[in-house]
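Side project, low priority. Logging it here so it doesn't get lost.
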Amino acid sequence: MQGMNFIAGVLLYHTSEHVAFWLFSILMVQYNASYVFRKGMPGVFMHCQMIDLLLEAKYPDIWLNMVLMRNFSVVGRQSTGSGRCNLP
C-alpha cells in the first residue's frame, strides 16, 4: 500500500531491520494504523474523530472555537454534509 514505505523508511533510519519490522507490525496491528491505508481510508476518519472527541473532552473551549470559527468537526457531531472530517 502506498504510504507505508514512508513509515517503514523512518523506522529503518532510526532502528535496526529487526526492530523496525516489529515496530511496524505493532503499529499496523495493535494501533490500527493499517486502516489508514485501506481503500476509502477509514482509519484517517476514525483518528480524526478520536482527535475531535479528545479535544472536546480535554479542551472544550478550543474545540468549540474550532467548531464555530472553522467548521472543524466530524460528521455526526455537527452536520457538514460531506461525510468527512473537515480540516481547516
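Brief comment: The first helix runs from residue 4 to 14.
Revisit when time allows.
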